[in-house]
Write a structure and sequence with these properties.
single chain; mainly beta; 47% strand
């Protein structure tokens, strides 16, 4: 199972991902890196929780603050 998740995340590098955080925020950005603890680095991150998105820039998110990750569709 861990290998499948790692493969999915690796295939999503340099693509836009959508994250739901424990504090009810929704963040969108380009996945640059991740580790075994699901700590993520995003470039061009935006807080899209409200109607008006707030630009954050480059951000490191600690894995235990992430509730859900929406990955882009895999190309066939």
């Amino acid at each position: 199972m861990a290998d499948e998740i790692s493969t999915l995340m690796a295939n999503s590098k340099d693509k836009v991902v959508l994250l739901r955080l424990r504090n009810s925020k929704t963040i969108q950005g380009i996945l640059k890196s991740f580790d075994i603890h699901m700590n993520l680095t995003l470039d061009g991150a935006k807080d899209i929780t409200d109607e008006k998105p707030v630009t954050i820039g480059t951000v490191l998110l600690r894995g235990d603050n992430i509730l859900a990750i929406s990955l882009p569709k895999e190309e066939s």
